[in-house]
Amino acid sequence: MRILRALTAGLVIAVAALVSPASALESLSVRPSDEAVDLTRAIERPQGEADRIQVATVPGPDGIVRRIEVRAEKPGDGRQWAVFALKNEGDEQIDRLLVAPRFRFVGSGAFRPDLGETRIRAITASEGLKPERQASSDDDVFAITLDPGATVTFVAELASPKLLQLTLWQPDDYEDRVNSFTLYRGIMLGIAGLLALILTILFVVKGSVMFPAAAALAWAVLFYLGVDFGFWRTILSLQPEADRILRAGGEAAFAATLLVFLFAYLNLNRWHVRYGHVVGVWLVFLVTVVWLAAYDAPLAAAIARVSLAVIASAGFGLVVWLAVKGYDRAVMLAPTWLLLLCWVAASGAAVAGLLSNPLVAPALTGALVLIVLLIGVTVMQHAFAGGAVAQGAASDIERRALAMSGAGDVVWDWDVEADQIHASHELESALGLRRGELQGAAADWAEIVHVADRDRFRAALDTLVSERRGRLSETFRMRGADGRYLWYLLRARPVVGADGEVVRCIGTLLDVSASKTVEERLLANAVRDNLTGLPNRQIFLDRVATALKHDAEDAPAVLVLDVDRRRKLAGGGPGSADTVLITIARRLARLVKPEDTLARLGGDQFGVMLMSERGPQAVAAFAEALKRALGAPIGFGDREVVLSASIGAAPVKLDADGARDAEEVVRNAEIAMYHVRRFGGDHVETFRPSMRAATTDRLLVAGELAQALERGEIVVHYQPIVRLDDRSIAGFEAALRWTHARYGRRPVAEIFAIADDAGLSADFARFAIEQAAAQLRRWQAAVPGEPPLFMSLKLSGELALDPGIGEALIAAVQREELPHGALKLEVREAIVTRDPEHATLALGRLRSLGVGLVLDEFGAGCSNLAELHGLRFAALRLDRSLTRHKAGGDRPAVLRPMIRLARELGMEVAAEGVDADSEAVELFHLGCVYAQGYVFGDQMSEEDCDRLLGLAAPSPARRVMQGAFGRG
Predict the structure, then answer these.
(1) Is 699 part of any domain?
(2) Of 76, 528, 812, 956, which residue is 20 to 30 A from 511 by alpha carbon distance?
(3) Strand, helix or coil at 571?
């Protein structure tokens, strides 16, 4: 039996010897007095399996060799294992920290450098307590325990194939080391941050390109130190992979900013333009390397380190060459750049592993901060001791004098001891005073200051003298020889003598009359209407709100008056509307009493808060007086305009459920006014709660319509106009369409009616003109022909004669380069006959500049075609009341002679409202040239028109429609 046991023990020892190298079984003795033990050379790297390894332990005091198996937390290639053994020969328990740094600048390598990652994934001990990982952002730290007399074999599973260093630390010594390096790193970061901030401030103060370049270099170094010291990793909670990206990007940024500084400081572009080209290409390459760091950090770091070495070497040669040529900047930079070259050489030796002392990395960090500090000192020396500032100081007085002369400011100087004020003669000329009249004592000089500003002016001077510091900036008025006052801004500061007292005050006077006038005008416009001078809507609401706070038996009333400007004012020509509004304001002002409030609420609307009259009967009587005042004719040359108005009234307080704020009171009066307009206007209505349901929808629609253009809800649709002889498409009529998600598709007439009330009709018209003109240009290019396609525009009411709309039409024709008469404006007959003289002037200019004219809705009233001939319309469009059959099936008897007369006067005749093919045939035989209506196509979108013109594949329904046209 003893022989069998001996054979078994020998076999186990032999197998263990074969599984693990003999050197791994050599244990390293650990003494309690050891502060730090380097285990790097005591580590063996056996080959194991992908997910496990079997290791023979070092024999303990009993001489027995054991065999342990360790399973991997993450399978690898079998080479991720490290084995070492520690022995405690004493009789006390030893607690140590096993530390493996994740990144070491020393030995990291120049090509494909090691930028840091987790080194040890886990450690397994052959006996005793399991090593526990300790929290650390810079190192992999495990706490191990060695029992007295124990020999423990440790198996480490590596997360990285390269184990840089493994050290056994006493916990207190390791903590002291970490704290000391933390303090050192904090000092370095503080110095670098302060230097970067100073250089940035210097960049703000000075405009030379060298200052932002130096500041950028300092910030790049600060960023790199933050990465190297783990500052960004701690603040941003970054993973090791992100830390590697930042490290590579920081090195590339340092190289790039160093190159920029060298170029900017030496001003290399002045020596040869090729220097700028080389540096530019190099800089773009380094910026690309910064982006490369996100994809391949080791490659980016390698390129950055090589570039840094090249920049330092080539830069030193360039600095020496320029210094030999006597370039002062190169001479000042030479010592610093020599130190930088030495730093690069030492860093190269460190990353290559030639310098491995633990103090190498901290020393290189401190040297880098010192180099940047020297660069900053060099830049500041150039700024404050070199040519730039010294040369400027020599001519500072001359520059200030030229600046004062160029600015046109008046020099103001008060000799306090002699009490004499001197001002430039330009001030006397501006005020119309005699030469020397402003030279005198301060008391006499202040007499020309406005009475309201005189005390403030004196107090400001006394304060400046008594305080003996600060700056004076005061605005006041000065009287000229003609009695008018000009505003001046006095900016001055005291000059203190050797005894600490103020000997003089000197500064400048600046004429600010224009800006003061603008300021007063803006203040007035904030509360007053700039046309009529009446309070605006905001002031009116404030007055109503004040009335709401006072209780009274008979509450005051609010009246809102709206003038029918569209029918009465447009015929007076340009500027007539403003004249009428001023006349209306004067008439209304004569009716109100001092306690009442009259305001212009906007557009043609006026508001009255009636405080002088109380009770329904008195309010109604006052409203009738308003109507009578407006009804009086207003003369324009040889003609008169009679106005009418819709008036809505509402009491400030209705009842417990009535208006609760000023906005609601005015809104109630506006609802009553809109109620009047719905029934023809020209009378007075008092608000009733039942009116809200009938009017609120229209008000809501008006509010949505104001934003419809911005939201793209307003579109232009087109209705085809055909030639009756061959049924080909001659052109289109453009019209606006609005489809709202809640209100649905609104009729065109309602859109323009609401737009007129809201003051938006001109904006909609311009939008329609721009869209239609651009669309016509596209269709003419896609469908050439002679005559070309035309586009007809039907605008709302009097907009056809509006000067602004006319300019928009002319601009559209010229911008799109449309043929003469291709863009046509439809003008209603009723608008033309109302004021033929004004229409002749307005439409004649449009026609001469390329806009075609079409007389629309002809025959809707009493027409005289001969009188309209003088306006030279190119075409005449018959009203649909003439083109449709009468009840008996016959057309109006006047249709044939009207068409014949129009053709004899040189006008082409068009018919609208053609709904049947038989009607089109009959109208063709009567002499109509064009027609539009349901039979030829309703208003349609741009895409449908493209299919109609053959520019896109037509739908089956559209093919049927095209069959009736012959072509197009």
Answers:
(1) no
(2) 528
(3) helix
